[in-house]
Amino acid sequence: MDQSVCIGRGHVSVLSCFPPSVGRDVTVAVVKPLRAGMRNPDTRSLLHTDSQVKWTMEVLCYGLTLPLDGDTVQLCVDVYTDWLTALVSPRDSFPPPISREPNLYTQKILRHLGGLFLSRSEQASPVYLSLCQQVLIAVQSLARESAVMSGDTWETLLHFLLRINNNMLAPPTTTDVSEQLSHLSMAVLFEVWLLSCSRCFPSHSLWQTARQMLSSWRHQLAVVEQWSRVMAALTSRLLVLSFGPSFPHLKVPDEDAALIPTDMDDQRVPQTWFRFLHLLSNPVDLSRPVVAGSTPSHPEEAMRGGGRLPNIFFRAMKGVGTMVDAFLGVTVVNKDPTEQQLSNTGVTPRIHFRDRLPSLGVAVARSPFKDRLPSYGISRPRSGSAPPIPVNILSVHSTPPSTTSSTLHNTRLKPVNVSKATSKPPTTSSSTHHWKSSSHPPPSSPRHPPSPLRCNVDSLLHLFGGWLFDAALIHSAGNVTVMSERWAAGRAEACGMLCRIFSCKKTTEDILSVYLSRFYLVLLRGVQVSEEACPPVLASILLNSTCLFCCDLRGVNLLFPCFLFAVESVLLDRELLRFKSFVRPVDLRRASILVLLSLLPLPLQLGSVQSEVLLDGKFSGDDVTAGNFLSLKPRLRSVLIGALQTETDTTNTQILLAAMLNLVQDSALFEAAGQTQQQTESWQDGASRPQSTGTTRGTSGTSGTRGPSGHSGTSGPSGTRGPSGHSGTSGPSGTRGLSGPSGTRGPSGPSGTSGPSGTSGTGVQSAEILWVQLVRLLTQRLMAQWKNDSAVCLSALEVLAGLAKVEVSVEESESRRALSSVCSYIVFLCSRPPPLHSRDLHSIIVAAFYCLNVWLTQHPAMLHHQECLLEVLEIVELGISGSKSGKEQEVRCKEEKELNPSSLRVKEAAEATLNCVMQVSGAFPLLGDQLDEDALIGCSTLSDTSVKKFRYFVVGSSVILAMLERPPGPGEPGPGEVGEAGPREAGPRELGPEPGEVAKCPSLTVLIRGASGRHSWTLQLQLQPRDGRTATQQTLIPEQRGVAQEDSGIRCGVKHQLFPDNMGRVSLVKADLSIPLLDDIVTDKVHWQLQHLQAALKTQRLVEAQPQVSGRSVVMTICRPPPPINSFQTARLFLSHLGLLTPETLKSPGSVPPQLLSLDSSLPGFSDDLKRLDELPSRNCDSASIFYMRAGQRTAAEILRNVESSCSVPSYFLDFLSSLGWPVEVGRRQKGGVSTNCSEFPAVLGDSGGGVFDGERFVLMYVDALTEITFIVPSSSYSADWSKSPEEAEPLTSQQSNTDLLSQHSALPPTRSPVEDMKSFRGSESKLLIVWVERFEDIESFPQTELLSETQSHTSMSNIQLIFIHPLKTGLYRICFRGNATSKFSLVVPLVNGSVVSKRSLGFLVRETVINCCHRRRLESDSTLPSHVRRKQMINDIIFRYRSRHSEPAFYTALFQDP
Fold this sequence. Notes:
With 1459 residues, the chain is mainly alpha-helical. Helix content is 43%, strand content 6%. The chain has an 8-stranded mixed beta sheet with strand order 9-10-11-8-12-13-14-15. Strand 13 and strand 14 form a beta hairpin. The N and C termini lie far apart (115 Å).
C-alpha cells in the first residue's frame, strides 16, 4: 500500500513550527483579503508569482487544521474550492500561476485539503459536516466537469479520496455524524473512480491500493452499501454488452445508473466490473472480526464494532445476490406496499422496504440520522437499488427465539396430530392485514422465471461460488449456535442464492461434481429440523428450492428424506412461531407445498432404490435408518393430509388439493399395475383369476374382451363388452366395468411400467385408504372451513369430481356418503340469504351440480338405493323450483309449484342433473354408430324415403318422437336403445321380438330427440309377460270347433220370466216409490218414441214366431273370433298406453302448447332442421391443440414440422398422445356422435409423429358421459383454424328470437367439409395449447403469437391457456401452466405450475385439467349456454316452424291412417 495514503496526514505546513497563536494570526491576516477578493470577480488577484502562491498555500494548509471556533477554516475552504475550478472554468481573478498550471496547483490543493478530514474533537458539529460536504462536492464537480485533467491529477485526486476515507472509515467505530459523512465520501470516491475508469484508467498499483484499503473499511456499513450500489449499476451495463438487448434488464434507480459514465468504452466495462467486484476481497471475512477491518485499540471498541458486522455481512451478501439474480435474468416486480400504507398515516418508515433480505427479506435497522440527511446535490445512497427477492424478513434476533416448535420429525405424524392454534382461530389470507411491525411482514413480490439466455451454473459459481459456499457454511461446525444466529441473515441469503443458482440449471447443462457435492453439503446442514437448526436458513432454502427436484440435478433425489422432514416441520405447524418474525408464514408454507409437489411421485418412481444419504446414521434424527424410497410414502401421505388440515390460505389450499388428486391417481394406477402383474403371473402358473365382488369396481380389466379403445374391463360374470372398450350391462354381481390399468394403452394412461407390487411397501393398498380419507376430508371441509371461500370450493369440487373417476376398490357406502355431502352442500348454498347471492355463488352451485353429475355417471349403482335417488331428485327439484316439496307440510305436484330458482344458470344446471339421472340407469356407450331415419329405413323392409314414413310428435314441448310403424325384418339386429355415440343393451321391457314373432305382435321403432340427445328404441306389444314364456309359444288364437248338433241331447221347455214368481207377493216400501213409473214421466216426444219401440218389438215377436208357425227349424251360426290382423296403428297404441290420447292433453291451456302435438314433416326444411338438431352435442364439447417443441426451436414452421415424422419425436410423446383419447376419423363423425369404426392407435399413427391427428382425417377424441374432448395435433401439411370454436363467431343466446335462429340456420351451407365437421367437435370458447418441450428454458421463447397467426386465428392472447410438459431424466414430467392470472378462478387443478407427475397418470391429469379449464371458462362466460339448453332452444324452434295446425278430429283421423 502507498505510504502516503497510509500516513493519513498528507502535507504539513511550515507554520506548524511556530506557536499556535502565531500561525492563527498569520492565517487570519492572509485569508481574509483573499476571501474578500473572491467576492468581486472583476478584481485582480493579489498573488502574481509562483513563490507568492506557494507561500500563501502554506498558510491556507495550516488554516485547515485550526479549530472551528471562528470562520478561518471556512474561509480557507472557500479559497481552495474556488481555486479548484481553475480546471473547469478559468477566471481572471485566479492567481496567474494557477491559471498557467492548473493541474500542478490542483494536485497541491488536494494534498492540503486532506488536513480538513483529520481526526478532531469538533467532528460532531454541523459546521464541520458542512465544510466536508463542501469539499466533497467541489471534488465531485471537478471530476465531472473538467476536461483538461492530467493523469497525475487523476491519480492525486483518487489518492486524496482514499486518504480522507481512510481517516474516517479505518476506526472500528463511528459516530452518527461520521457515519453520515462516510456515506457521502464513499459515494464521491466511487463516482470519481468510475469517471477515472472512463477518462484515465487507474494504474494497477492504484487498484491494489484501493483493494487493500477497502478491505480494511468493510466493517463500515457505508462501504458495503455503496459498493452494492455501484456493482448493481455496473452489472446492469455489463448485461447489455454481454447478453444483448433481449436479455432481461436489471432495473436500477436513475441516480445509480448515472454513476456509470455514458462515454465509458465498452471494452472497459468488463474490466471495471471485475475489479470493482473484488475491491472488498472476500465478503465472508466480515464474519471474522479480526480479519474484517483494522484491529481496534480497546476491547470495548471491538465489541461495539463486532455487533455491527452481522448486519454488514448480510448487506454484502444481499449485494452479491442482486448480481446473481441479474445474471440469471430474474426480475422481480416490487410494488412496495409498506411505503404506501405508511405514507397515508404520516409515519416515517424506520425500516425501509428495500432493505429486506433478497431471499428472505431480513431487514436491518438503519441510522435515523442518515434518513434525515439532505441530498446536497448528491444522490443519497440507496441500499435497495437492486430489485429485492420476493420473500420478506423484517428482523433477525441476535439470540435464538425463545419459542420453538416440538420435534415433529421424531414421530410419524398422523393427520390429526397437528399443532392447533389456542389464542385465536385461523384467518384466511383474504382478510386485510395492517402490518406495522415485524409480526406482519409485507407480502412477497412475484418472481419471473429466469431468462433462457442466462449463463451456465458453473460460470456463476466460478465468479461467486467461493464466497457463497463459505458464507453458507459459516460457523456450521462446533458448538456455535448462539454465534451462528447472529450471522443467520447473511448465511440464509447465501443459501438462498445457491438454491436459486442450481435451480436455474439448463436442461442439457452439466455441473461440476465439486460444486454439486458442496451444494448438497450446504443443503444437508441447512434443512436440519433439530433443535440446533437455524430457522432463517431453513426458510431461505425452502423458499428458493421450489423447483430444485425437477431440474435434473445429479443425485438430488437422495436429499428426498431430508427435505420431506423439513417440509413436514413447516406444514404441520399451524403457528410457525419460529419463522413469524422474519418471513410471512403464507409464503413459507407455499414454498414448502411446492417442494412437496415435486416430491410426490418420487417414492413410486424410484421404488426400491436405496437412499444412502445419512445424517448421523439416521434420517434427520429419526429412528428410521437408510431405506428405500417406497417406505417413505406413508409419511408423505400423512404430511399431505396434515397440511390440508392446517392450511388457511386460499392459494395454498388449492395447490394441496391438486397434489392430493395427483397422489391418489398415481397410487391407484401403480397398485392396479402391480395387481395386474401378479394376476398375470398367477395365470401363467395355472392359478385361477380372481373374480370381482359386488362392492368393488373393476380395475384390472382381466375378465373382459379388448375393445377398440385399448381398454379392458370387468362387469361381473355376465358382463359384456361394448364397442367403446367399456363393459355393457352389469351382471348379477352388480359391478361396473371401467377402463383397464395403466399397463394397457388407452385413455386411462400411457403404457407405463408396472410397479413391483400393488402395495406401498406396507402390505396395504394405500390408494383406497387415501381415497377414503381425502373424500371424507373434502366433504367435511366444504360445509365448514371452506364454505365461504369460492375459489377453494371450486377446486375442491373439481378434485371431488376427479376422485370419482379414480379406479379404486372401496365400499359403495363411501360413494353414497360423498354424493350426499355434495347434495347437502348445494342445499346450503341455495339456502343462503338473498343479499349473499352473487354470480360467484351461483357459479359454485353450478359446479356442485356438475360434480354431482360426475359421481352419478361414474357410480350409477348408487341410484339403485332409494334414499340416494330421492335425495338427488330433491336437489334437482330445489335447483329447478327453488324449494323442496319434501320439507313442506303438503306435497304439491310440479304443475302446482311456482318456479323460483336461485338463478337461470342454477335451473339449467339442475335440469342437466335430471337428464343425467335419466341416462345412467345402464352402461354408457362411448363410441358407436348412430341410427337416424335414413339408417332405420335402410335396414328395414321399406324402401321409401325416411321422413315420409315416420310420424312426428312433440311431448311436453321438449321431446320430439319420430315413430316408425313397421317392425324390423328377419335378420336385422335386435332392437335396443341407440344413444348419441352407440348402442346400449335394452332392459326387459325394451327387448325385441323373439324368433317366430316378427309378424305376430305390434312393434314400433321410436327415435327420441330431447335435450339429453337422440336415442332409438324398438318396442313390442306383448300379451303375456316374457318371463316364463318358451320360445315355442305363439300369440293366443282360439281353436276351430265343429258345428253344433241341433237335435242332440234332451230338449226341455223352459218358461222364461223376467221376474221371480213371488215378486207380486212382496209388499212395497217407500224406497220402491222413489223411482217413478215410466208413465208418470212420459212427455209427448218420449210417448212417440215408446210407440215406435213397441211397434218394433211387436214386429220382432212376429219374426221370432214365424219358424214355430211354419214348423221349420232355424240353424244358428256359432260365433267365432276374426283372424289376427297384421296391420296396427302402433303409434296410436303407444301414445294411448302413455296416457297421451286424452282430450286434456290435446288442448292448449292458454299460451302454453298442449302436452301432445304433431309435426308436419312435409314442410320444406324439416329434415335439414332435424339434422342440425342432431349435430348439436349433448355433452360439453372442448378442444385442445398439442405441439411438440424441439430444443432450440423458435419459429412456428419448425414446430409444426416436428409431428410429420415419428423420427422427429420420441416414443414417450406418442405414448402420451395415445393416453389422451382414441383415434377418430373426422369424415365418419355423424351428428354429434363419433364413429364406431375407431382404429387402433398404432395403425392410424403409422410413421407419423402425431401429425396424422391434425384434423384433416383423424383427431384424438376422449368421450365420457358428460364431456367430449377433441385433441388436435396441428402440422405444417394441413393448415386449419385449430383454435377457433364455432360459438366464437356467432354465440347462441337465449334472447335471440326464433326468426333470427331460422335465418341463421338457413344461412348454413348445405354441405360441410371435413374441416368444418371437425370444428363441430369443439363447443367451447376456451383456447388450450398443450406444448411438449424438450428444454424447459424454451418455454420463454415459445412462438405463441406466430402460431396463432399461422393458423389464421384472431384469438386474444389473454384467452389462451398453455400447459407445458417437460420430460425429466427420472421418467417423470414437469408441468408449467400459464393462464389468465387476472381471473379469480385462474388456479386450475389438478395440474398447477410446478407439478411433477408420473407417466402413469399424465394422460388422466392432462384431461382433467383440460376439462376443468373449459368448465371454468364456461362459468365465467355470459354467452356460453349449456348443451341441453341449446338443444332445447332448437327443439322450440322446430316446434314453432313445423307444428301441425290440424283440428282435433283430423289429429285422431291421421292416427288411423298410414303416414
